[in-house]
Structure formats: structure tokens, C-alpha cells
Amino acid sequence: MSASPGMQTVLRLATAGSVDDGKSTLVGRLLFDSKSILADQLDSVERASKDRGLETADLALLTDGLRAEREQGITIDVAYRYFATPNRSFILADCPGHVQYTRNTVTGASTADAIVVLVDVRKGILEQTSRHLAVAALLRVPHVIVVVNKIDLVDYDQAAYEAVEIQVAEAAHLLGLPDVRTVPVSALTGANVVDLSDKTPWYDGPSVLSLLEELPPADNPVHESFRFPVQFVIRPQSGADERFRDYRGYAGQVAAGVVRVGDPVVVLPSGKATTIAGIDTADGELTEAFAPQSVTLRLADDIDIARGDLIAAATDAPAPTQEVDGTVAWLSDRPLVPGARVLLKHTTKTVQAVVKAVGGRLNLATAHLEPADQLELNDIGHVTLRLASPIVAEQYAVARRTGAFLLIDAHDGNTLAAGMVGDALLAAKATV
After folding, report:
1. Which residue segment(s) compose the domain that 231 sits in?
2. 333 class by beta-carbon count within 10 Å (0-12 exposed, 13-18 middle, 19+ buried)
3. How many helices (H) and strands (E) would you count in the chain?
4. CATH, residue 307
5. Are 275 and 158 members of one domain?
6. C-alpha dihedral, 102 to 106 to 107 to 113, nearest 10°
7. Do the Cβ atoms of 197 and 160 come closer than 8 Å?
8. Strands 249-253 and 294-299
9. Ramachandran angles phi, psi of 372, nearest 5°
């Protein structure tokens, strides 16, 4: 039984925007106009809208989450929604807009192929917009679409749209975003969301949905070097079925690349070399496996391997390290200061770490690091971490999956920061 990489048919999409930019209405309009909601959902929204004294359905109610959150006028979770057109399927991470929930935007954008950032045409780019664009640059989201919303409130004025378009271009250049598109939209009326509007004859680009359908696939991890973080060691078990009495395998998900039976590999951080003896799944054996398949690998040699070790291609295996320089998005109310003790989670391995230094804070207006001796909630900055034991990390600019890490509070298990190995912002700028 064999498998081979296939074409990407699903686009992972994140949405973000400042408060009251109309993001919930845009997502609701996208679902409604693409006929991706059920009749009973629409009936529920229409009843709720009528109860509020509205003459037409408030499409924002399709996406605003729990009733209590809607009544407060805020959304505090990342809601994952699924919809499809004849041309493509979508997984949409609907992120909240309030500044205190920037952490949710980091979560939603971390696995996205594209991010849609909303801007109110009357307000232009705000600080939170810059923060969302910075997150997209740091996480190297392949495609960024800036929806210039509420164009109906300026009477579909071309000059108003173009003024924001210039702001977006300047921000993209500062942050090193190579692929940014803008679309003039009225989420309320549906103009240019699914269908193009005759009220913007001066706009000759695609609608938001058409653009999402046409985006090229993101970089395929199959084309990267083979990396396999060990999640679980399956050891021989006495009393088990005869097939498994002497079975030893290493279960996990292929993070990058392709592996085949007979390939030479190295186990890190020990550096022991061996070859792939077999690839197993619940459905039987494979001759090859590729990202992001979950499989169990058997090796030709009996090597001491534990959860968190990395099985990598022997030809270009990364070097283990106990010091990490990285860019972090700080997500905690408690400031990050030098000397702080945290847990660092990298792939399937968690190690103790101490903050050796804070190297600066990102100024969102200039996209440059400025001196800082600590990072506060929603700050993006550079840190140096000293680890109690080695990890096998790569530069995030080269490998998103093995270049990402989390900082965790050892006492309560809360996530403190999302991190990227290396200077992620400089790496992003180098691509433009």
C-alpha cells in the first residue's frame, strides 16, 4: 500500500480586524451569499434580527459566537467554520477584533494559508490593524487580503479607497509582506464580497470569494526536508498479539518532507544514524509517508528514543541547541522580564527555559525593534532563551513547523507566548 502527495483542495483562512470594522458581517455575508448556511440557521438569524427591531437579517449573528458574547457585543474565541464552493473548500478561523484578544489572532493565523484583514475605509489603518499585519508577517502567512470595508458609507468613493490602499502598501513594505491584495467592499450590502458590484466600476479586480478561490496553494511541507517529531514510543509488550510482542515503533506526525522505507535517517539530539525499516498505519504498511500524515516508523537499529526526539533526513539534519534566539508575541498579562523561568514547548518536546535577555520590542509604526527591558501584553519582541536540555529547532523562515515554539507557565499551564526561532521580521523583510 502506497501514498503520494496530492493537490491542495482546502484553503485554511483566518479573518482579523479592529473592533467595529464589520468582520462578523463580512463573514456572515460570505457564508450567506455563497449559500453555505442552512435554512434553519437563517431562520434563527432573521428571528433574532426582528426581535432587535431590524428590518433585514443581521448577518453578523451567523458568526458572533455564544449568545452571551453577542449580547455584550464582543467575540472572545476563535470560531472555526467550514464552507465550500464548487471550486474550493475552506476552513475559516474567525478571530476576535479586540486588542486584548490578539492572542487568538496568533492562534488562528499560525496555520493559515491566507488571512483576511478588515479596515474601515473611513478610519484607515489603525494600531490593531498594524498589529494584525505584523502577526501575518511574523508567521509568514503566504497570502494577505485587506478588505477595505464600508465603502457604501463613503458613497463608493474611489479616492477614499485608494487612500487606504496607499496606507496598506506602505505597511506591507515596512513589514515585508510580499503578497498583499486589497478589495473595496460593503459587507452590509454584499458589494464585492461574492459578486462584483456595479457601484464600483472603477475597481477591476476580483471579489473577495473569487480571490480566495484563485489563490495559489501555500508552500507544501512535502517539498521540505524530512522531519518527524516522536510523539509516542511503542515498545514490545508481553502478552500482546504475537505480531506485537517484539514490535518497537515510533508514532507521530510527519512535520515536513517525505520518508521511504530504506531511507537513511538520524535520531536527534543523540545523533545516532539508522535507516527506515518500515512505515505502519492502522490500515496497514506503507512504502512512503509524507507531511502531514500520522504514522509509526520502524527503524533498522535498536536506539534509545523518547518522546520529543526528532527523526530527520540524514543528509541535512539540523543541529541540537540549548540556546534559542527568537521573536515572540507575548500573550500574558504578566510582563516578560529577563530571568523569568518558563517552559518551552517545541514540536512534541517540552523543556525548562530561562529568559536570558529581552532584545527589544517591535514598534508597529516603524516596523523596527526599539530598546525594551521587558515585554507586555500583545507586545512583539525579540528574546534569547537558555534551555535546560537541547531541542532540534530550525529557523522559522525556513521551516514553519520545526521553527515554531510556545512559552508556557510552569505553574498553571497557560500559554504565555507564541514564538518563532530567529528574527522572523527581518526574515520576512528579506523576501521583498
Report:
1. 222-313
2. exposed
3. 8, 22
4. 2.40.30.10
5. no
6. 130
7. no
8. antiparallel
9. -160, 140
Amino acid at 61: L
Most confident of 81-85, 108-112, 139-143: 139-143
The answer to whether residues 367 and 267 belong to one domain is no
What's the pLDDT tens digit per position in 329-371? 898 889 999 999 999 999 999 999 999 999 998 887 777 889 9
Instruction: Give the DSSP letter string of 78-111.
Output: -EEEEEE-SS-EEEEEE---SGGGHHHHHHHHTT
**Model confidence pLDDT, tens digit, residues 365-385:** 777 889 999 999 888 899 999
Q: Residue 431 is which amino acid? A: T
76, 149: one domain: yes
- The label of the residue with cell 502567512 reads 141
Q: Which amino acid belongs to residue 332?
A: S
Q: For residue 69, which amino acid is it?
A: E
Query: For 388-399, how does the pLDDT look when each residue is reduced to its tens digit (9 = 90+)?
Result: 999 999 998 888
Residue 358 in contact with residue 336, Cβ under 8 Å?
yes
Percent of the chain with pLDDT over 90: 50
Angle in degrees, CA 40, 44, 47, rounded to 5: 135
Residues ≥6 apart with Cβ < 8 Å to 95? 14, 15, 16, 78, 101, 104, 105, 107, 108, 109
pTM for the whole structure: 0.77
The residues with which 347 forms a beta bridge, in sequence order, are: none
At residue 132 the predicted structure's pLDDT band, cuts being 50, 70 and 90, is confident
* Residue 432 forms part of a structural domain: no
Please give the radius of gyration of the chain, using alpha carbons only, rounded to the nearest integer. 24
Mean pLDDT of 102-118: 79
Q: DSSP for 238-300, please give it.
A: TTS-GGGTT--EEEEE--BSEEETT-EEEEETTTEEEEEEEEEETTEEESEEETT-EEEEEES
The verdict on 40 and 174 lying in the same domain is: yes
